[in-house]
Write a structure and sequence with these properties.
Layout (H helix, E strand, L loop, with lengths): L2 H9 L22 E11 L4 E4 L5 H15 L5 E2 L9 H6 L11 E5 L11 E5 L3 E5 L3 H14 L14 E10 L5 E7 L7 H12 L5 E5 L1 E2 L2 E2 L8 H4 L17 H12 L4 E8 L4 H6 L28 H16 L5 E5 L8 H17 L3 E5 L12 E4 L7 H9 L3 E3 L2 H4 L21 H5 L15 E8 L7 H8 L2 H10 L7 H9 L2 H7 L13
Parallel strand pairs: 2-3, 2-4, 4-6, 8-9, 8-17, 9-12, 12-13, 13-14, 14-15, 15-16, 16-17
Antiparallel strand pairs: 1-7, 5-6, 5-7, 10-11
Helix pairs in contact: 2-4, 5-7, 9-10
The structure holds ligand TNX.
Catalytic activity: Hydrolysis of terminal non-reducing N-acetyl-D-hexosamine residues in N-acetyl-beta-D-hexosaminides
Keywords: Glycosidase, Hydrolase, Signal
EC number: 3.2.1.52
């Protein structure tokens, strides 16, 4: 090639006949709304800088740098000299990057995104000189960073220094989610997981644009968060778990705040759950006054459900509820409090109604919006609360009625996206009460047309719960979550119009090298064409 051609190539102009002229599309999960390959290749180099022009991008830029510094060994300094001044592609293209002091290539995070990106979308343009990320919110920048990580070679996720080159093929992406709520839940009550284990899962969630993390913090087997006004809850109720292991199996409020902050630094909002009025044995084992007969219950380390209930007609119960909600609300910046409400088989219907009539206003009083397992929605006509559907049928009259009134439903159908269901009968981990759930089963449903009477507009989003009766380690968590968690992320984000198992399965397979680099234990389903 002539010198002129080389210069044109270096400036990113389209050079006919080069391999870059027809790049193959990147294999992203979740799939973006719009993606157009373009000519040229971006390279991350020792002198690449991360430049931001908006405070919205501060934490996302830090997450990006924190991810890439160990693997590339590059400094990747974050420069914020241009705060408040949105830049566009033409401007960056015209600028002599060296003359402006940028030096080498740059990842630029700025505002001024196309309104089509909405409240949490973004635009991402990859050219030889720069990666330009435009978003109008912090959420948008976090989502763009998740995409950028997947555009880089898998080894970019390594915790130790790797050899380059660190290239990204040219692309133009305009992206926004199908649903606002893309969630995952971890049950830390049946088995306790340390803050480090929980952070590890949070970090994995962030790579798929999951934006809500629901922590199931109390159940029959354990109370897992320090409540200063009721110290025995953790002293006694946090002393054991399924299988009978003992220890200080709970988070202090300080540790919880640190978990919440960690999630926040990944763009994830924590939703704390305290399950009531059933699933309360650990609390009833801690305090005699929470029982109608005034007798403490024995600690429970089995896996039955439905045997416990708070004492509904006792004032102490509502003092307890208020103290818990007040203390938890004070250390939870997110707007939601999950009240549980499932499987209250030992609470008569009238008592269940009485309980919710008292408890729901308490949640409101402390400034939070109630989320609850769908059973609770029959007790209220408040359209602001969020019913979380966890059934196995496609009809539910109470949930449909709520959706008709205007409630937005969070979809977690157990036979589709309960991550604790076995993939098939020979899997050691997991349960099977909702059936076996292979990867394709988890993918093959439409959240916006699944429940009778609940249309696309009535759906708030999807959440993948992970119950831990049979799970004890991070490897166990990951084996159940991978690859079904990315499936749920795809359902929650990607446009419905691109839904196709045949096109999705190879894209899912293309993620496996990243999981290997990250040390993620995954189920190698024979349904997926792993390479
Ligand atoms: C049902 S789902 C439960 C949990 C169990 C789970 C096991 C729901 C709201 N309640 O208590 O852990 O099944 O899959």
């Amino acid at each position: 090639p002539t010198l002129a051609a080389l210069l044109i190539a270096a400036s990113g102009a389209l050079v006919p006949g080069t391999a870059d002229a027809t790049p193959s599309p990147p294999q992203l999960i979740p799939h973006p709304a719009q993606l157009t390959p373009r000519a040229g290749t971006f390279t991350l180099t020792p002198s690449t800088k991360i430049i931001l022009t908006t405070r919205n991008a501060t934490a996302p830029a830090e997450l990006l740098a924190e991810t890439l510094r160990p693997s590339t060994g590059f400094r990747l300094p974050i420069a914020d000299w241009f705060i408040g001044r949105d830049v566009n592609e033409a401007e960056l293209d015209a600028s002599d990057i060296n003359a402006t002091g940028l030096g080498g290539t740059a990842v630029v995070l700025t505002g001024g995104a196309d309104p089509k990106t909405g409240p949490e979308g973004y635009q991402l343009d990859v050219t030889p000189k720069f990666v330009l990320i435009r978003a109008n919110s912090a959420a948008g920048h976090f989502n763009a960073v998740a995409t950028l990580r997947q555009l880089l070679p898998a080894k970019a996720e390594a915790k130790t220094r790797q050899r380059g080159p660190w290239q990204i093929k040219g692309a133009s992406i305009l992206d926004h989610p199908r649903y606002h709520h893309r969630g995952a839940m971890l049950d830390v009550s049946r088995h306790f997981f340390t803050p480090a284990q929980v952070k590890r899962y949070i970090d994995q969630l962030a790579t798929f644009k999951i934006n809500y993390f629901h922590l199931h913090l109390s159940d029959d087997q354990g109370w897992r968060l320090e409540i200063k006004s009721w110290p025995e809850l953790t002293k006694i109720g946090g002393s054991t778990e399924v299988g009978g292991r003992t220890g200080q199996l709970f988070y202090t409020q300080q540790q919880y705040k640190d978990l919440v902050a960690h999630a926040q630094s990944r763009g994830i909002t924590v939703i704390p759950e305290f399950d009531m009025p059933g699933h309360t044995n650990a609390a009833q084992a801690s305090y005699a006054e929470l029982n109608c007969d005034g007798q403490k219950r024995p600690l429970y380390t089995g896996i039955e459900v439905g045997f416990s209930s708070l004492c509904i007609n006792s004032e102490v119960t509502y003092k307890f509820v208020e103290d818990v909600v007040r203390e938890v609300a004070a250390i939870t910046p997110g707007p939601y409090f999950h009240i549980g409400g499932d499987e209250a088989h030992s609470t008569p219907d009238a008592d269940y109604q009485t309980f919710m009539d008292r408890a729901l206003p308490i949640v409101k009083k402390y400034g939070k919006t109630t989320v609850g397992w769908h059973e609770f929605i029959k007790t209220t006509t408040d359209t602001a609360v969020v019913p979380q559907f966890w059934g196995t049928k496609t009809t539910n009259a109470d949930v449909a009625a709520a959706a008709q009134r205007g409630n937005k439903v969070l979809m977690s159908p157990a036979n589709k996206i309960y991550l604790d269901m076995k993939y098939h009968k020979d899997i050691k981990l997991g349960l099977s009460w909702a059936g076996y759930v292979e990867v394709k089963d988890a993918y093959s449903w439409n959240p916006g047309a699944y429940l009778d009477g609940v249309s696309e507009a009535g759906v708030r989003g999807v959440e993948a719960p992970l119950w831990t009766e049979t799970l004890q380690t991070s490897a166990d968590i990951e084996y159940m979550a991978f690859p079904r968690l990315p499936v749920v992320a795809e359902l929650g984000w990607a446009p419905a119009s691109i839904h196709s198992w045949d096109r999705f399965a190879p894209r899912l397979a293309a993620q496996a090298p990243r999981w290997k680099v990250m040390g993620i234990n995954y189920y190698p389903s024979t349904q997926v064409p792993w390479q």
